[in-house]
Design goal:
The chain is mainly beta. The chain has a single domain, classed as Jelly Rolls (Sandwich). Helices cover 3% and strands 50% of the residues. The chain has a six-stranded antiparallel β-sheet. It has a four-stranded antiparallel β-sheet with strand order 4-9-6-7, with no helix packed on it. It is globular and about 45 Å long.
Amino acid sequence: MIVQRINEIQEHDLGALLGKPDIGIKSRQLLQEEIGKNGQGRLLDFKYIIIKPGMVCPSHRNDYFEANIIISGQAKIKCGTQEYVLGEGDLAYADTSELYELVNIGNLPLKLLAVNVYENKKKIVNAPKGK
C-alpha cells in the first residue's frame, strides 16, 4: 500500500512547467506508478491541483488520458464548442484528441484531482513513495 500526505509533498508552479509562469496554478505530484504486467503498458499518475480564482489553465491537448475530479470550487471547462460548469464531486474526462481549457469561475481556489493514464511510458518523475 502507498500512503501520501498532501502537506508533505512539494508544490510546483504548473504554469512554469507549461512555459507560462504566474498563471496561478499549483500542482503536487501525489503518485506515479507503472501498472500492468511487469511494469509494461501504462503509467498511472495522480496530481493535486489548485487554481486561483479567475485564473485559466490555457487551452491544451494532452498525450495521455485525463480525468479531473473537482474537490472544491467551481470550474468552467470549454471543449470545442461545448462548455460545462462543474462543482464539487463532478468529473470531466478528456482523451488525447480533445483540446480543452479549464477556468476557475468561483471566488475560492479551485481544487481538483487529476488522474492521468499514459500509454507505453515509464515513470517520468520521482514522485515520493508512500509511507
